[in-house]
Structure formats: structure tokens, C-alpha cells
What does this fold into?
Amino acid sequence: MTRPTRFLIHLDRLVRNCAKARQLHGGRILAVIKANAYGHGDVACAQALQSSADGFAVATLDEALHLRQAGLTGPIVLLEGVFAAAEMAEVVAHQLTPVIHHAEQVKGLSGLKSNQKLDVWLKVDTGMHRLGVAPEECGTTFESLRASTYVSSITLMTHFANADGADAQTLIMPMQRFKNATQGLTAPTSLCNSGAILGHSDVRGDWARPGLMLYGIDPGAPDVAPRGGLERVMTLESAISAVRTIAPGESVGYGGVFRAQRTTRVGVVPCGYADGYPRSAVQGTPIAVMGHSAPLIGRVSMDMLMVDLTDLPHVGLGAAVELWGDQVPVEQVAQRAGTVAYELLCNAKRAPRI
Ligand SMILES: *Cc1c(COP(=O)(O)O)cnc(C)c1O
It folds into this structure.
């Protein structure tokens, strides 16, 4: 393997970030490793976290089975539940924990064999209006689950639509709805994603559900250092694979979106949108070359991108490049591409993970 582009995954940092989440939240940690652990590699991350997390959360049955096949034991919560009753047999066989987010799904349990039992999480819609039973349905759904011979335990959960910002007021209404909906029901609870763990210390449950923060990224403001001393788990690195000098007036790359104002030294980096670097990144998006910041120029192509090396005359072929990591926060690349770190991380592909 000679192409220098790769994702370095610092699993030691992942483990420390998980400890940080537990320190901030307390109770048990359900490590969210859906979407291939936000692009970091699901099995490697799950194995690294096995003794520091109390369970894992994924979005699909396939993701859960991938973890079980790799030998991971312990709770695995299916955050979107099952998509069809036919999935229930696998869910039971592999002792997965489905989220029940719709009263219809309770009926799906009655197709199980009489000796089969599973843990479930019951999701209440407190204002996101995506998944979850309505607050006024919560009590009756809870009672029918408790009456079911197939259910061994119930955990009550909700998911916030607005936990990332600095506004302390945003969780007051959803918390009020959750308290009203679950009043008198005796069960463990799970409320907080990364934003709530980092920014709302008054909101806590029995289980935390950190995702992004495990990977060292703060879902809050992209231009400030992450809260909580989080450490970035992923570095996307490469090296300069070609250098040329062009005259003023010449353009670079597809569509000629960059036109040189001066004699310009152009460096080629063999990393493109097929590796997950966003094509939508604007001119001037920062790239670290040998520890110096240099601007992206030209349109990002499938396999390559270009960087302006004019102000770094000592930099040549083979020079170390960081596309994101400790020197170039992935949130800043995301911002220049009109998106969020979540999307860039879970698009990490093609280049090997090390
Ligand atoms: C993805 C997800 C999380 C994790 O969210 P982060 O913002 O990455 O911490 C938690 N809960 C649910 C229901 C999710 O879908």
C-alpha cells in the first residue's frame, strides 16, 4: 500500500473520551457506534470500548449483527427498533434490544415463541416529532409492554431536537413532557446525547447515549475548542504527490474555479471525495502541510485535491499533509463545506483505517 492517504484512528483517545462522558454524566454509558462508528470502524471501536462502555447503540439490524459476529457481547440497542416484524426472530436470537417507538410494534412481540424474552427501550416523542410514542400514549404502551410475557425489562428514553446549542432553556419543554409522560412509571431512563451531556448538566438519566463526543468532537460551536477536554480520534492524513508552478491567469482543476493571481506553486494531495473529503469544500479551506496552514485551491475531485504551496517554498514532494485531525478541526472543514462534522466522519471511506 503506497498511497499515503489514510485514516488514523486513535483508539486510546476513544477510550478516554468515553471515560469523560461517564465522568460528566454518571450512570451507565451506551456508546453510540452506528454508521460504522461514525466512520471510525465499528468493530475496532467496540472492542476498544468493551470494558469502558456498558452497551452499544446502532441504527440497523445489520450493524448489530456485525458486532455480534465479531464476538461482542452485552447490550446492543437498535435505536430505530425493527423495520419489519420479520426481523424480530433475529433480534431475539442475538439478544438485541429494540427501541419501541410506535404502539404497533408492541403487537409485533406477540409473534415470538413462548419462551423468548427480550429487553426493550420505549421511546417517547418530546418534540423532535421523528420517532417515539406521543406523551399521552406512553403510560398505556408501557403497561402493555409490562404485561407482555416476552419483555424482561423496559428502559424509558427520549431524544432531544435541540441539545447542541448554548441555550440552557431549550430542554425545559421536552423535559417537562418527558416527566409528565413517565410520571409514576418505574423504569431506568436514557435522555442525553453528546450535546446534552456536554451542555446540560441538569438533565441526566440512568443511561447516557454519547455518539459524537466519543470521537472527540463537540457538537456545539465549530470554531471553539471542544468542551470537556475531548481528544480527536480520527486524523485524515496524506502527503504531497506532485508539485507544479503555474503562471498568473492559469486555472487549477475541473471547471477552473481557482484562477492564479500570482505565480503559484500547486501541490497535489491524493485524497478526494471518494475518500470522504467533501467536494463542497470552498476555496481556502485550511489544510495542514508540514505543520503549516495552506489553502485548498480548485475543485476537490474524486481522488485528488490541490493546495496552494506558494507561501511554503520549503515544502516539496512527500511532505506530510493533514486534511483533518488535531491541526485542522474536522468541524471547520465541515463548516466550509456547508455541513457538520457528523456527515464528514461517517462518510470516511476507501482510504484504509489504521
Ligand atoms: C445518534 C444518536 C445519539 C448520539 O448522538 P450524538 O449527538 O452523536 O451524541 C443518541 N441517541 C439517539 C437516539 C441517536 O439516534
Notes: Residues 32, 34, 79, 159, 193-195, 209-213, 219 surround pyridoxal-5'-phosphate (CB under 6 Å). Residues 11-219 form a domain with the TIM Barrel fold (CATH 3.20.20.10). The two ends are 12 Å apart (CA to CA).
